[in-house]
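Most newcomers find our protein records easier to grasp once they have seen one. Read left to right, the backbone structure tokens trace the chain's path through space. Nothing more is needed to start thinking about how sequence determines fold. An example says more than a description, so a record of this kind follows:
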Amino acid sequence: MKNVLKRCISLLTLFNDESNQISTEYIRDNISSYRHLSDSAFKRSFERDKVLLREMGYNLDYINDKWSIDEGYNLSGTSIIDDIKNNQNIDFNNFLNTYHIMKNYLSSKNKNTNNIENISKLNDAIKDKKRVSFNYQNKIRKVYPMGIKYFNNNWYLGAEDDKKLKTYNLNKINDLKIGNKSELHNKEYKEIKFSWENIDYLIPIKLNLEKDIYLINKNVFNHSVIKKNVDNNLLKLEINTYDVNGLLKFLLLTNPKKITLKKKHKTLLLEALNG
């Protein structure tokens, strides 16, 4: 799997060095790990690498403009990290997914490579509200995936199974298959409360930030307001939340003037960010 990471880095470097669109042949000739592959193997590897780059926030789009002499691939979109810096709306859960995925590529402790592909497939199924099936502990499950979370060094899928929300360890999911039909339910990700989200993981936090900035970004995470006070445009806020990833996104987007929370809750945030 380290080869996959190397190829992705090589692709980003190649496009960074070139200002024009790049042909498939040029890509294959200039990335050493592609050269020895057969045509079919190269196509599979390249498609898989494009999927992973998309999860990282980069899109490789093929440009074929009949009015232009140049045609080939172009690196479009912006990286998720740049979006954070530019204060844009981003899918921060997806960013965290990617962060941990890339970290696990370099870790000798995590050898389960199925997670990388499964997370990408499940994210698509969640977005399109499809049903999925998989083998879990020698039993076939047919469920509606609702969300993916990282907890205690493992990835978990939250899914509706027989009208009950259940949690599945991604390390134990095999033979994942995605259904064809979309929009099979009307539930939203924000409705999910994973089994470990009990009082031990409730995060009380105090924030001082501009009122206008809070109003613009308050919907990026689930929280309840305990107390608030406004002085001119300065908002002093006390909130509770279980939504660790959403809180991280909110803090990055709003850059509060003051943050007050207990050490154990700082640890929870750091664990979510650093895996």
Observations:
- The chain has a mean pLDDT of 75.
